[in-house]
Amino acid sequence: MVTTVIQGAPYPAYGSLPDVPADLRALAEWVELRLNMRFASASARDLAITAPVEGMKTWLQDVNRWSTYNGAAWVDQPQVLTAANSTDRTAKIPAPVAGDLCYLQDAQRWDIYNGSGWGRSSPLSTNADRRRVGGSVVLSTNGSGDSDLNTGLSNVEFFMAWNGDAGARGSITMGNMRTLWPGSSNTTIRMRTYTSSTGAALTSNTVRVDWLAWGAA
Fold it and tell me: Residues 52-101: pLDDT tens digits?
């Protein structure tokens, strides 16, 4: 038997004695090791494949998951899928592994499995325990000092602010003034009512800041 150049598929050499059953078996066994093989469970797979080769893939029917042999062990592949709700997610991923990602349609959010439990991966979700708040605040630049704007959220996960053509995420700069950035606690956004490029207080200006914040209610 000789083999193909790229993947080493066996085939009879020219002039070799014909042995159709042996030739077909050699080719079938070569192909079988490269198929996406299906097994009822990991134990059934391990019983059938006693000498796995790096790159092998198997589908485990009991946990609905692909596994790949990396040369040392079988590694479960994380999944990305959509589920109607957490009950549907459990049915689709009965044995989650770290890295599994699932979008819950009822809660409109992505959840990720961290190895011990499902956690939310999207702070901008609109489910019941997340909300968005916003408003406007006028900052007087007469004098100097900081003050915190209480958002009413138990945890500010993301905020943005803008005024005119200035805008940023995390902090905002308008002219020579930095006016808004994360506050002293996770419930607030901090406002600064001063500073110029030289550090001197500005005395005759006010700035309206429009803001939105997302976080835990």
Answer: 989 888 999 988 888 999 999 999 888 889 999 999 999 999 889 888 88
174 to each of 89, 188, 198, 205, how far by Cα in Å?
46, 20, 15, 12
Give the 3-state secondary structure percentages of the chain, helix then strand then coil, rounded to 5.
10, 40, 45
Contact 201, 143 (CB under 8 A): yes
- pTM, whole model, 2 decimals? 0.43
CATH of 78-120 among 3.40.1180.10, 2.60.20.10, 2.60.120.260, 3.40.1620.70: 3.40.1620.70
**Counts for the chain of helices (H) and strands (E), in that order:** 3, 18
∠ CA 61-89-116, nearest 5°, is: 90
Pick the closest to residue 180 from 207, 142, 198 (CA basis): 207
Instruction: Give the strand pairing for 146-150 and 36-39.
Output: unpaired
User: Are 208 and 137 a contacting pair, CB within 8 Å?
Assistant: yes
